[in-house]
Amino acid sequence: MSGSASPPLPLIEPLPSGASAVVAFERLAALPHVVFFDSAARDPRLGRYSFVAADPFAWIECPADGRDALAEVETLWRKFAPHAAIQPNLPPFQGGVAGLLSYDLNRSLERIARPRFEDLQTPALAIGAYDVIVAFDHVEHRAWLISQGLPEVEPRARRERAEARLAEFRRLLFGNLPATSTTGGAGKSGSDDSHAPVSAEQLAPQFDMPMLGVSSNMSAAAYREMVRRGVEYIHAGDVFQVNLSQRLLHAATSSSRDLYLRLRERNPAPYAGYFDLGEWQICSASPECFLTVRDRQVETRPIKGTRGRSPIPEADLFAGDDLESSEKDRAENVMIVDLMRNDLSRVCTAESVHIEQLCRLETYAFVKHLVSVVRGELRPECSPLDLLRASFPGGSITGAPKVRAMEIIAELEPTARGPYCGSLMYLGFDGAMDASILIRTITAGRGWWQLPVGGGIVAQSDPDDEYRETWHKARGMLKALV
Predict the structure, then answer these.
(1) Are 108 and 393 in contact (CB under 8 A)?
(2) Residue 416 · residue 115 · CB < 8 Å
(3) I want to staple 356 with a disulfide (CB 3.0 to 4.6 A). Which of 209, 262, 373, 394 is the partner?
């Protein structure tokens, strides 16, 4: 427009009233490395925003080989953070890096032995740099298309890219043409689930069949024995608590996109999400926030203590009362709160670290949990990635002390956890960060759906109860399989 100033970057286009995050995800799902941060269970504080992004301009993927993959992410983030522009009064993720930190990334942070079997070999880290974001505010019922124009940094080239990317994503969101790779070019989509299944003989042994079509990497008796050995380590003074899990498997019967849409419908969660790594897809209905950073203020919300819900109102109320009054579950929660306080203290100012909430009952579709909140403020010299190094993986899914608990997990669990108990996260170019803990999560790929489930073991743990608890936690995922 001659004679008028160009609008500032990033380019921001409000979407029509009634714009749907789910529809945006479906429209963009065929693009490379689509990621959907989905507040499927709405809450004014925990489930306010959703984001859809795809076709990143850069991509980092690393196996679990011990390299410092977070350093590569930090280099990428710092390269573009000074050039990004962030608009106030909009949802917090307006461009940045996003993706998967698998549990197995722990081997790049600590000296942890390899698990006995790594049969499905998912990446330890898969992160993209995203310049176009579709952002939703579920409280204000508004949505925006945001285009940064990166990786171009020269002003004219950046504006031209921002305009082109905005127009292309608008066409994909509202036109009738199929999605194809635009100008990002950092990878390919693998969400058509075209890979032939790996045969069961190629996977770790000891399958059990507790329900039709679902197998486990250990029998019920083997899980109970694993719990007994965990309790022995606790009595020996090695740990106070250790989280132990079994991996359930089901042959894929639909696309991972359809699987995720069923999962979010049948088991809605405030930290739900989908991520297409290419060969693998993450479908998560996580209730647990690992880390949030806003204006350098840090929050973590560890979950410990679980009861299955009942369709009978009186029994459901009793389950909540029983959980709130359980000395075992409260002690388990407090142990993890202390661990997270210590982790945050490594990168936060000492006077800022405090417990905001302790052992509050929260109710979800299939379970009730005890949830605590710990907060702090990052020290001036520390970045959100320093916070990840200090805290990853979350203590609620390892145990305490964390390193020894991870050593015991590597010894007792037969197969690598992969994405399970890792994190789906975004880090905005302005330093805003959200990271979930990948529980209630299905990893799709190579013809299989993996859905591990576990729980925290303490000195009072009963092997039968712990085994039953894993199936309570699996209910919402199992309902999404068909």
Answers:
(1) no
(2) yes
(3) 373
Distance CA(302)–CA(341), nearest Å, equals 11
Dist. CA 127–CA 100, nearest whole Å: 6
DSSP sequence for 41-79:
S--TTTSSEEEEE-S-SEEEEE-SSS--HHHHHHHHHHH
Q: Is the peptide bond before 10 cis (omega within 30 degrees of 0)?
A: yes
Tokens linked to 187: 């990878």
- Half-sphere exposure (Cβ direction) of 436: Cα atoms closer than 13 Å: 30
Cβ–Cβ contacts within 10 Å for residue 327, how many? 8
CB 76 within 8 A of CB 62: no
The residue among 64, 67, 69 whose CA lies nearest residue 117 is 64
Query: How far apart are alpha carbons 475 and 482 in whole angstroms?
Result: 12
| Cis-peptide into 151, omega within 30 deg | yes
| Residue 342, C-beta contacts closer than 8 angstroms, at least 6 positions apart | none
Residue with tokens 């029509």: 16
Q: How far apart are CA 159 and CA 161, in angstroms?
A: 5
The one catalytic residue among 168, 288, 332, 413: 288
- The residue whose two tokens read 């936690």 is 473
Domains of the chain, earliest start first: 11-174+196-296+380-480 (3.60.120.10)
CB atoms closer than 10 angstroms to residue 333: 25
pLDDT tens, residue order, the chain (482 aa): 444 567 789 999 999 998 999 999 999 999 999 999 999 766 666 778 999 999 999 999 999 887 889 999 999 999 999 999 899 899 999 999 999 999 999 999 999 999 999 888 899 999 999 999 999 999 999 999 999 999 999 999 999 999 999 999 999 999 865 444 444 556 555 544 433 444 444 444 433 444 568 899 999 999 999 999 999 999 999 999 999 999 999 999 999 999 999 999 998 888 999 999 999 999 999 989 999 999 999 999 988 887 878 788 877 787 788 888 888 888 888 888 999 999 999 999 999 999 999 988 888 777 788 889 999 999 999 999 999 999 999 998 999 999 999 999 999 999 999 999 999 999 999 999 999 999 999 999 999 999 999 999 999 999 999 999 899 889 889 989 87
User: Which residue in the list 61, 74, 304, 466 is annotated as catalytic?
Assistant: 304
**Between vectors from CA 77 to CA 73 and to CA 81, what angle results, nearest 5°?**
175
Residue 402 annotated among the catalytic residues of the structure: no
CB 29 within 8 A of CB 257: yes
288 tagged catalytic: yes
